[in-house]
């Protein structure tokens, strides 16, 4: 990650650390319990949680393993993780400052590497996957959850070029809300990256994640002008993007929409 990109992520998430600590989407969410279940952690395992944020996934795995290293590039997030571990009396969680594309850990030093709702901020997904594989032990396990862009399953009947356009529109939408957003690819891109890097896919699931628009923009401290533009895109933007995000209003008039989360469990192979 370049110095400018690192600084942008730190500036965006440093001030928002406490919001992510209490965010329902991050603290709970369907994918959190499911990734632990599918990863099938063992009591002897050493775990690395990359871009831990406020530490919710590290805390979810901690009761099932020997120890967890919760890593992040943002000091404020690491402080929130330490607080969460203390509050939950999880004394097997440690924190470390680490960048996803240049992990400061020895080869083959973890049984499980996990990352949840963060990889779309990484500037080089291939490098992230390569680093995760490097620090995994032989037959080690990789567990990923992240937002993904639309594909043919989500946009039935759309042409390949229309899906490419919808993917670009979706990432532009995300980046407008959060300038530190990098790129969220369609699911098959993740599968290809993992298989080409020497992983075997052992589980794959996808979830629709309903979001409240107001809390989504508030968490990232968007300006009123940005909020207006994001709402305009949701309500009257490109048709394929709206088909993917499924905007709707509840009985009070509050705006909601749906993101897609991909969950992948993959084992390191020789």
List keywords for this structure.
270 residues; alpha/beta; Rossmann fold; eight-stranded mixed β-sheet; 12 helices; transferase; methyltransferase; Diverse_substrate_MTase
CATH level-1 class of one domain: Alpha Beta
Please state the overall shape, judged from the principal axes of the Cα atoms.
globular
Q: From N to C, what is the helix and strand string?
A: HHHHEHEHEEHEHHEHHHEE
* Major sheet attributes: 8 strands, mixed
Task: Provide the CATH topology of one domain.
Answer: Rossmann fold
Kindly report the average pLDDT value: 92
- Count every beta strand, where a strand is a DSSP E run of 2 or more residues: 8
Radius of gyration, in Å, reads 18 Å
- Quickly give the structural class: alpha/beta
Strand content of the residues, in percent?
15-25%
Low-confidence stretches: none
Number of helices: 12
Helix content bin: 40-55%
CATH architectural type of one domain:
3-Layer(aba) Sandwich
N→C terminal distance? 28 Å
Output the CATH homologous superfamily of one domain.
Vaccinia Virus protein VP39
């Amino acid at each position: 990650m370049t110095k400018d990109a690192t600084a942008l992520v730190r500036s965006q998430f440093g001030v928002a650390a406490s919001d992510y600590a209490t965010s329902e989407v991050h603290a709970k969410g369907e994918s959190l319990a499911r990734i632990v279940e599918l990863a099938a952690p063992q009591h002897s395992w050493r775990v690395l949680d990359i871009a831990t944020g406020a530490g919710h996934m590290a805390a979810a795995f901690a009761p099932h393993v020997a120890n967890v290293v919760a890593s992040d590039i943002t000091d404020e997030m690491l402080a929130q993780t330490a607080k969460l571990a203390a509050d939950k009396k999880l004394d097997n969680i440690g924190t470390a400052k680490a960048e996803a594309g240049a992990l400061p850990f020895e080869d083959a030093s973890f049984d499980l590497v996990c990352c949840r709702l963060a990889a779309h901020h990484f500037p080089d997904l291939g490098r992230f996957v390569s680093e995760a594989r490097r620090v995994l032990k032989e037959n080690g396990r990789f567990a990923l959850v992240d937002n993904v862009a639309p594909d043919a399953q989500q946009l039935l009947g759309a042409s390949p070029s229309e899906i490419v356009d919808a993917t670009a529109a979706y990432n532009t939408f995300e980046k407008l809300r959060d300038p530190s957003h990098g790129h969220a690819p369609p699911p098959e891109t993740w599968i290809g990256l993992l298989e080409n890097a020497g992983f075997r896919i052992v589980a794959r699931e996808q979830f629709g994640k309903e979001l409240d628009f107001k809390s989504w923009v508030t968490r990232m401290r968007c300006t009123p002008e940005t909020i207006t533009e994001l709402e305009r895109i949701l309500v009257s933007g490109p048709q394929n993007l709206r088909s993917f995000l499924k905007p709707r209003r509840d009985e009070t008039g509050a705006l909601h929409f749906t993101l897609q989360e991909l969950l992948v469990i993959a084992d390191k192979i020789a």
